[in-house]
Amino acid sequence: MIALNWQICAAEEPSSDPGLTLDGKIALSAMIALVDGHIEKMVDFLDILTLTGEVKSLDWEKMKPLLAKVQQDDVPSTVWFARTDGSYCTVDKGAVDKNLKDRDYFPKVMAGEKVIGALVVSKSTGKKGMVVAVPIKINGKVSGMLGATIFLDGLSMSIKQEMKLPDNVIFYAINDQPCITLSWRTDLIFDNPAKQENPSLSKAIEYMLSREKGTVEYTFTGKKRKVIFQTSPLTGWWLALGVVKD
Q1: Domain ranges of the chain
Q2: What is the rounded (10 degree) CA torsion for 28, 30, 35, 37?
Q3: Per-residue pLDDT tens for 108-127?
């Protein structure tokens, strides 16, 4: 349990300067480390599996037991293998009657790149998620890919539970679209906060996206929110942590 003083004191006006308690800064750093740690661990597992004979065989039945062990980790996800034609199999469903070739990340991985943080609605589950995917290389040639779709509602709840957050503490993450990628309220995931009819919130989001870290105050659902924020070095997302003022 992270025992911290949750009186996160943001300045009355946006500021890159702390008027923040030390505990607030520590809590935000801990949250970023938790989120990035869960994602990095999945990437590391997939990287290691691409070196195994089972995966290099490109035989789904041979590699499935290894992928199933990765999926049983502490982050809700679905782990999958995709061929160069876009057909794919998941641990839960086996062969899926859909294709990944139209995904934006697909050509990048086929070109030998690693992808971290692509946002999708899973074709196999319909859930909102982020994709991590790594190429399978055989004799220097990309012959397929391993990937995991990490479910953002499950990751959000894992973070809330691991940090033992009180009810008056909120957190969320946004990307540069902006799109909500994580949230203490999972119904907000994939919403665009800048498009809500809330000038206070829109101004706060615009401010956040213009800086790597800082503090900001705004009103949402009739309550004042004070948050500190900072970008993740792994995903590039802005993570925010704060308190609700009645």
Answers
A1: 38-151, 153-245
A2: 150
A3: 999 999 999 999 999 989 99
